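[User]
Protein folding is very new to me. Any chance you could explain this protein sequence and its structure tokens? I have pasted everything here:
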Amino acid sequence: MPAEWEAHASTWLGWPHNRTDWPGKFPPIPWVYAEIVRHLARVERVDIIVEDAAAEAKARDVLDRANALRDTVRFHRWRTNRGWTRDFAPIYVKRDDKRDPVAAVNFQFNGWAKYPDWPLDQRASEQMVRYLNFPAWTPRVAHAPSRVRRLKPEARSLKPMVLEGGSIDVNGRGLLLTTEECLLSHTQQRNPGLTREGLEQVFADYLGIEKVLWLERGIAGDDTHGHIDDIARFVSPDTIVAAIERNRDDANYEPLQSNLERLRKATDQRGHGLNIVELPMPAPVIFRRRRLPASYANFYIANRCVLAPVFDDSNDRRALNILADLFPDREIIPIYCGDLVWGLGAIHCMTMQQPAT
């Protein structure tokens, strides 16, 4: 699985349409998407999933008024339940095959093991695979302790493995980051009975992973129960940014300190130490008395730029400067996400990269 900073052929996203994701605050959301598309379309192709012809017309109108409608923008009329593309889209891998250098691993999506309205998202993932005409595999696992085998799909005891793209991050050299809270907890349990060893075997077989770094917990307000893309991200093969909370009274202080301690002791796939860069957290973002998963770690690395979430917070500048130092060859573009994060996700959650061939 290539790193996010490697060359992209495209960024995929699902145009927002489910108002229940942003109850009482939906009107500004398409304009946030338009701002994101405006920047992405300058540096790579943008593939946008829309519900139907009417939805495409509305999206085109918004993008046109936002000066974001370019020749690099393409639309696909496939129905979705929500549109958090990071979590339901295929995960792409590169291989030493001149005929088919990019392939897709189509994990099962099940609404974060929490919501019932997910089948259209899963179907959209399958439509993406057919449209791209990439070789594709669906990992199947036995939901029993210590039993993970690549067997024939017709074996009734095997089920498609559930995994969201936001739950993992890779350095493109065989090292993967994830959390125990998301993949091993009995809360919002994706794959009952699947062990740590079983998960690592699937990552090795299908994503080319040599070593997995397990952090403990995610941040407060995270509806996914521990996605990695809010707490720690690779920014180079040997460097990880780790979200840090300085306020000892904040709910995020202890779990983020625990994650930081693990990272400082960790080594890469070859046993070498890692560079750990601390990334501040914004002050708590609260709406309707609910803590939202606001984090600067939910940035997206595109061709020649990095889209970084900001929250009208005093730490915005610090976070942007840290990212600028880490990505000297890319433009760091702040995107206001105070409204977007009411949907319990931000820029990384709504995007999925397709590697260049």
